[in-house]
Amino acid sequence: MNCNGDVANNWKRFHEAYEDYLIAKGLDQKDKKVQVATLKSLMGTECKKMKDPVIILAKLQDHFVQVRNILYERYIFHNTEQQVHETIDQLRQLAEPCNFATLEERRCEETECSKISTSTKKRERSQLKQGGKCRYCGGAHERYKHKRPAFGNSCRKCGKANHFKSVSMQKQGVNLMNVESSDNENSFYVEIVDAIRHVERRRYFVSLSFWDKDGGESQIQCQLDTGATCNVMSFNTLCEIKQSGSPAMQPTCIKIKLYNGSFVPSLGECELNCIYNGESHKLNFNIIKGDQKPLLSGETCTSMGLITVHIANSINTSPITAPSDIFMEYKDVFEGLGCLPGEYHLEIDPDAQPVKHTPRIIGIPLKDELKAHIETLEKMEVLKKVTEPTEWISSQVIVRKGSNLRLCIDPKDLNKALKRSHYPTPTIEEIVPELTKAKVFSVADAKNGFWQVKLDEASSYLTTFWTPFGRYRWLRMPFGIATAPEEYQRRQHEVLEGLPGKQVIADDILITCQRETQEEALRDHDRNLVALLQRAREVNLKLNPKKLKLRFNEVSYIGHLLTPDGVKPDPEKKLVANHPVLCYYDVSKPVSIQRDSSETGLGAAFLQDGQPVAFASRTLKPIVFSCDRFNQYIYGRESVDVQSDHNPLEAMFVKPLTAAPKRPQGMLLRLQKFNLKVCYKKGTEIFIADTLSRAPLPEFGPPGNYLRPEKEDVCRANVEQINASEFIRVLDGGLRSMQRETEADAKLQCLKEIVFWGWPETKPEADPSVAEYWTFRDELIKYL
Length: 784
Prior knowledge:
By secondary structure, this protein is an alpha+beta fold. It has 25 helices and 28 strands. The chain folds into five domains: 7-64, no CATH class; 205-304, Beta Barrel (Cathepsin D, subunit A, domain 1); 323-571, Roll (HIV Type 1 Reverse Transcriptase, Chain A, domain 1); 579-701, Ribonuclease H-like superfamily/Ribonuclease H (Nucleotidyltransferase, domain 5), CATH 3.30.420; 734-779, no CATH class. 31% of the residues lie in helices and 18% in strands. Strands 4-8-7-2-3-9 form a six-stranded mixed β-sheet. It has a five-stranded mixed β-sheet with strand order 26-25-24-27-28. Strands 18-19-14-20 form a four-stranded antiparallel β-sheet. Helix 1 runs antiparallel to helix 3. Residues 401-560 form the Reverse transcriptase domain. Pfam families: RT_RNaseH, RVT_1. InterPro entries: DNA/RNA_pol_sf, Retrovirus_Pol_polyprotein, Rev_trsase/Diguanyl_cyclase, RT_dom, RT_RNaseH.
């Protein structure tokens, strides 16, 4: 309870608040002692002796209401004088306790209020009367002597003070002001000048002699402002030069932007003649209200020789757009899972037969982690459990990426049945011509790119796959679908179409611009970046904040280093940096892989039109290594030819996986994501791979993603021994008979020795008795 000021009104408000408090807290139904204690705690120490809340309220009502003295309140009201910054609302508060009830009393209140000076009345007094012209200067201005442009000036006609030549009584001249104003504020040009009224600092001035054919000559002091982009003059100064209160001006749509960011409207433009150091100059001024000294722009100062530039310093400013600003302004673009417009339909060949894979067993230690991952994907609406029958069921594939699991499917049979909607994927060579004069680069990465494409219901059921916890189907486009890369590339191009300075390859988005100077490049780059983020917000495209590379002079993009000077090999790719001359990869041309192995290692060459695109060599299974090494080139292609000098592989890749021997089954499983076609070629025809296999490159650092660490030792050393005779379907008696006949045959004994010790380099050096086996020498082995 506030006992100061208008205690009657204070009491009324306290009483209402107290009753609301009792109801809100449920105290109105409590015992009176509780209510008294509550009231005393709210009122203070003066009410401790009272016991009945009704009595307390009544006494307080009588006490506070009797305090008001109406006559005194009205006396205070009528003797009130307005202080600085006081408003009418404060006066009305003083009138409230006076209880003005009659009309006469209300009029009295209004009379007092009419004496109050308000900001509106001040503006009304400062506004000019329509049609009023000053007889001293001929123009319109506020009705104060010191506001008159002619005040303090002498007439150049009669020589008398405080009026202009145009209104001199000796000669009645008529000057017309030809000003056409434009009300369209949407179309204007912006000129930048320093603040008209500066914070006090060192300034530089020059005195110029302005002359007019009607007004004569005037000496005007002008301020030099090298930061201004236009000349500015006040209307009063122009009137002094023209000796007229209504000088002629040309209409303009220019708005003058001050250093602090505010705008000053221009009344018009005027071209004036001036003389400096005996030379005549024509200067164009923007006219504004006020009485400030004229400002000369940096360009004018340079052209008139007022300033001389000896050294042009380049200042490195801080980035206009910091990552923290981007994340704050476009926080929604970097959070959650996006969903691009439209749904994707997987089209199946009507002649294809549905395939249902059998469930795969996963390690027990991975089950809990896999289940938690599946539950997370269900909450994100990426997966959905399936209980009804489905025609297609694929197997699951678990890939560990860092410390997290990535759940994929193995849609080998589904991919064969899918109809592909072909769409070109850009290459780095295609976008390089668009990067001419680029000086600033940024790279954004789409977050969970494929998952931002929603599948329709029919297509979702085609992606059903097994898990240890039942069947699930993908609601978003999964990894492993053969048509996924092309479809995602198409949608990325569609949603980002029309944006300036952007290039898109898969889920990597490059933002840049082409400008001559660094300052222009930064400005246009930031404009292009903001346009991308706004478009991403509109189409619900989500970006990965961890992979955002913002405003770099050099940036790594698709395995290449983009710089203002051109494209360079990524220094992190040490092997690529040391490559010989390779042809550019063309996604539209057929591809082939050469592979070969020797006792030293293996070699692989990735070819297009018979020319090498990439090389590789290592100690590993040749085809598996070749495909993993060239994964970025062949994954998702309709067909890849593999040239091998091992003839049995050609038949092995045609047979079902279950019909393959135990050892090659692991290799075939790893190669299921590729559409491979193995063809046999002689060793002399695959000389590139043969050369690489005999001279493998030294290794740099840890093995890449194409080599699984847990298999490295097995691949480096042939620790697995297989007795091939166990797989020959020959009875024991027949096998022993073949061994006896071989021991008795001199030709076969000679062949046995040659196979064991090695064939000679040329056919004439071989024993004539075994020359007929020369063609099959690479396929012969000696069984112990």
